[in-house]
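Example A, followed by Example B.
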Amino acid sequence: MKTIWICLLAATMLLARPVMGQTDAAALETVLHGKALGLLSYSADSVVKFTYVDGKLIQDPLLMHGLGAFFPDTVRQKGSKILIEGQFSTLVLSSGKLAPMEKLPMRIEVELQGASPAVVFPKLQSLLFFPSIKAAIDGLPEYVSDFLPYPFDGKLQSACHCVHVFQDGKWIKLQGDFSKLTAPTFIKKVENPKLNQMAIDAKISGTITLVYYVADSGRVDELWLAKPLSMELDESAARTGRDNIFNPATLEGKPVGSILIQTVPVN
């Protein structure tokens, strides 16, 4: 299913091959500016924080993941941090085509922690981004690849007609008879009374679609933003979503991790 729409992306949705010699902020900005980049972390947060340690980037905990394109505007060094500021657009399906939603502000922060900027700058492009948007889509975890990119009209049609569950430390794809599988149900469904007022103040209405990984403990261990509305509203809905508690899904009577989609109306 995923590859059908990839060819419909504009040429600007491809990331240029890494260019050597990016030893300062200006050089990296020249390479990245205006391109559509797929984040290796699949972060959909407004601020994404990393620490550079021994040639690798260690990421701070994420509020929400998402499939999107990041468009860098500026790259600068501020003290011990490298800051890449730009805009993020969630990718959805619209009339069968891959389409970007509204661009929203995003900032990537890399704490150098004593590392030499001249050493870190040449590595950042490959440490942060996929080589192309196609690679980002192809690299989606299997358990969400049937949901993302999410259809803008909400009419989801799974390509595999299957269900993924997490059991015994691994993901299992179930097909055919689902009679031995029970879906997760809410024990505690947390409401967000501020969300509608935030929408009224921002003069925005619509829906936010979230995809939960509900662990066998009943907790939301991972959250994906499938269809956004605005960065502030999305993050508020995500924080609330992470506080929900469930009776976990069960397979043959045993608790398993599972995926649950929730559409949050905002009026």
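Example B, a separate protein, is given below in the same form.
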Amino acid sequence: MSDFQLAAARYKARHQGSCAVLIIDNVDLIAKSHPGLLRMLQGMAKMAADENLYKVIFVAPDGVAPEAMKGESG
């Protein structure tokens, strides 16, 4: 992920503060087979949002992923 973070920082510098966007599609597949990876991606997305470095969009149909993304606090 550090390569993407570096590219996002360069993008932001070149485009007057606009943020890069990372789209993660089929999150339901990750939620079913690797829920730990999904939690890690959520943590990375939160860090990126907190630092206003880039935006992460999770795309999934209703079902497993939205429920898994609630985590323990949902």
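On Example B: The chain has a mean pLDDT of 85.
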